[in-house]
Specification:
Blueprint (H helix, E strand, L loop, with lengths): L14 H8 L3 H10 L6 E2 L5 E2 L2 H16 L4 H39 L1
Antiparallel strand pairs: 1-2
Helix pairs in contact: 1-2, 3-4
Length: 112
């Protein structure tokens, strides 16, 4: 009986790992942490930030609004305060569409 091994997922990510995911400096993540209440990483005994998957998703929301959509920090704060769920839904939809496009491009390349 074959089974698929589950990939082990980390519980916590360092600020460097989070910054690398978004191709930004760790200082920007620290700045956003000070500006946005939704980013609340735990700190270990040494004081190092430990980001959860939820923290990373919240960074993704801010990244999307500020870096991809061009919102000011204040505009992003207002958007998140008024309708965080709508922003999350739009990002999920965009990511789904990107996956579908990638899949279709892959099929297209195999047909040629």
């Amino acid at each position: 009986m074959a089974y698929k091994e589950k990939e082990i997922e980390k519980l916590y990510y360092s600020i460097g790992e989070v910054a690398e995911q978004f191709n930004v400096a760790p200082s920007l993540i620290r700045f956003w942490e000070s500006e946005f209440e939704i980013i609340k990483p735990k700190k270990n005994r040494k004081g190092n930030r430990q980001f959860t998957r939820e923290d990373i998703e919240n960074v993704r929301l801010i990244y999307h609004l500020v870096k991809e959509k061009g919102f000011t920090l204040q505009g992003a704060k207002e958007m998140l305060k008024n309708d965080t769920h709508s922003v999350k839904d739009k990002i999920e939809l965009l990511n789904s569409l990107k996956r579908v496009r990638s899949f279709l491009m892959e099929i297209r390349s195999k047909l040629h």
